[in-house]
Amino acid sequence: SVDRLPEIQDSRLRLPVLAEEQVIMEAVRENSFVVLCGETGSGKTTQVPQFLYEAGYASGTGIIGVTEPRRVAAVSMSHRVAKEMNLVVSYQIRYEGNVTSDTKIKFMTDGVLLKEIQKDFLLQRYSVIIIDEAHERSVYTDILIGLLSRIVPLRNKKGLPMKLIVMSATLRVEDFTENRKLFPTPPPVIKVEARQFPVSVHFNKRTPLEDYTGEAEVHSVCRRLRRAFPFRRGNTATDYSDEMKKFKKAKHKRTVSLPRIDLDNYSALPVDEGDEDRLAGIDDEGSDLELGDDAADTEEKADPSLPLYVLPLYSLLAPEQQAKVFQPPPHGTRLCVVATNVAETSLTIPGIKYVVDCGRVKKRFYDRVTGVSSFKVSWTSQASANQRAGRSGRTEPGHCYRLYSSAVFGDFSLFSEAEITRRPVEDLVLQMKDLNIDKVVNFPFPTTPSAEALVAAEQLLVSLGALEEPPRTGRSPLQILYLTIPSSRLSCPISPLGRAMASFPVSPRYAKMLALGKQQDCLPYVIAVVAAMTVREIFEDLDRPAGSEDESSKLAQRRARLAQMRRLWAGQGASLLLGDLMVLLGAVGACEFAGCTLKFCEENGLRYKAMLEIRRLRGQLTNAVNSVCPEVGVFVDCKMAPPTESQVVCLRQIVLAGLGDHLARRVQQEELLDPKWRNGYKTPLLDEPVYIHPSSALFKTLPQFVVYQEVLETTKMYMRGVSAVEPEWVP
Ligand code: ADP
Ligand code: MG
């Protein structure tokens, strides 16, 4: 039985989902699959695991597993449920966890469960799996639902019954329930009526294109709000209602005096899990004081009589910082949370009364054919905007201020697209093949990825040697892409190399490099380079606009320092040809040599959080490599010597083997038809030139052939992570 504190019991009883406990548990008892819909905040995530626990679903050998698409939710929900139940509840995310043999309830990211399926297809450790936040339609969530639709009947057949509960914050669940391939008999859908207070929605009359603040980075908004409504201990308003009136007046003034913000002048701050490392550079509360840009901004007048307690909230924020939003703000202050999408549905912050919605979302866009990616700010969907608005009406009637007009809202798409239709799928296809799902096209996806994306993935995996060659059909790959796709092209079985690659927690191109790394004792270098390549933005963004002259000159100094360090890390002669990857290797080596300290990172233009993540990933990759080929006995050497000349040559070939489809050839003088091709590179799939970025180690060298990590379109199409290729290596 569960021993809950009285105040916890009280707040539980107020949650709408509590009223449905009987109905939910009965449905779970009688069905293998159950779909549960309930507004965000109705208590699904915190309560349903408790219902299951109390009904005995963790009393035998099996435990209760809950998946979340976001790390932040997995961690914070496990803590919350532990607190409510007075019981140990565990979590597991990519690098860390606290699972023990006594764990009864386990929160994890969806990626973690997918990895577990590879080890034990029947998931025998679990008696029930809850797939939470299914409305987010994250790629792993979709795949998990497809897999579990097959695993659960298998378990039942084996006499080890298992349940699947899919939870969604929206009622749009037809992709799951009306999909006969997925569930031949539609699962029951239980709806929890949320006790939602009315929310008044206020639209802007016009939709400003230049001066909205919502998409500006979380930290700069935090900084500005703190400046405008400063809070210092001992300087807090006492009369709350009075303060409120003033706040309303001031709020009006504030909207009028908001400075213009250049919409094209943002650094990438996407919101999805795969890219959340980009968010890591955001300052937390204390550190922005030292930026000293107060002087420059005269448009916002500080009003200390309206103290705001401003907190940032985003995925990679340290857990103790995240937890702050759940605690009451200091007396006499108003809590103001500046959040990315995590606050849309994954986390419910208590007591929110006003929501300001910029209506935008920042997403990574991939071109399916060319692989070029770019970050774009676009309008969100109506469903998301309504979710955001709903956050203000949890505890009393609320208000949502939409920084766009009702006409613009009318043009939003109704729902956001499933992620699986928006990104390359080679990593998923490899994982699925490793599960012996050869005919990926036949997989019961809730939403099937495009045929082009599946073909492209399978072709890449064949070219990397991860899949066996398909029988020849006599047509070129491109013809196949645009004509019909013979099913043989989409059912290549996995090769032994592919199995090794699938066991590495990185995408197939990098996994290939790891698999080849044994040669010439290159493994420690390959591991370090791969770790650095898969963690985004290891260098600080020193090109950001400065708030004051002082800051501007400091930034210039640090830019010069970073440029100098980059040259140093790039080395000379032979090592220079490994290009940007040599710079990464040098940076990782130097940082580890110095003990991976904050001081070293700050002095040398490296992002501390990125370097810590690289360190963890190096450890993890080292373990993974050792378990695939124990004979190499590789270890993380924090005093790693630079690679020798012949090792550099070997590393360049390993990189080429992984990035072979990302080959680019410099356009020769005699081919110059159009001036835009000057210093440009030709790639197989693009009609337009791509370029080496001025910050690249190879910007001055301009080798005849290069491979690159990715093409990112900013002002031009720039290759990132460039390394030189000898002409005689080109196939
Ligand atoms: P749902 O999953 O349906 O969106 P949750 O179970 O996440 O709902 O939340 C139910 C309630 O629990 C919410 O009112 C939320 O404010 C509260 N809650 C969740 N986490 C915490 C926490 N760490 N501290 C205090 N309250 C919390
Ligand atoms: Mg939830």
TrEMBL record:
It comes from the Eukaryota. One of its GO terms (biological process) is maturation of SSU-rRNA from tricistronic rRNA transcript (SSU-rRNA, 5.8S rRNA, LSU-rRNA). Its EC number is 3.6.4.13. The keyword ATP-binding applies. Residues 25-189 form the Helicase ATP-binding domain. Residues 281-436 form the Helicase C-terminal domain. Keywords: ATP-binding, Helicase, Hydrolase, Nucleotide-binding. It is an enzyme of class 3 (hydrolase). Residues 272-297 have a biased composition (Acidic residues). One of its GO terms (cellular component) is nucleolus. One of its GO terms (molecular function) is RNA helicase activity. The keyword Hydrolase applies. It catalyses: ATP + H2O = ADP + phosphate + H(+). Residues 272-301 are annotated as: Disordered. Belongs to the DEAD box helicase family. DEAH subfamily. This is RNA helicase. The chain holds residues 237 to 967 of 1112 of the full protein.
